[in-house]
Design goal:
Layout: H1 16-25, H2 31-52
Helix pairs in contact: 1-2
Length: about 55
């Protein structure tokens, strides 16, 4: 007997706490590394915000 698995929709808001922790962790890195990762994190946050924005009515 097989139990059908339903795919759960991906919720990008689940990633936000991970980004917060990553921001805290990179404080120990060099300025160049921090700048790089801060840009990457900012881009991910913009993407998440755009993806989760409510559609206009």
């Amino acid at each position: 007997m097989r139990i059908p698995l339903e795919r759960q929709p991906y919720n990008p808001l689940w990633v936000v706490p991970v980004l917060d922790r990553l921001e805290r962790a990179i404080r120990r890195e060099s300025k160049q590394e921090r700048d790089y990762w801060n840009r990457q994190i900012a881009q991910m946050r913009r993407t998440i915000e755009a993806h989760t924005k409510e559609a206009p009515r």
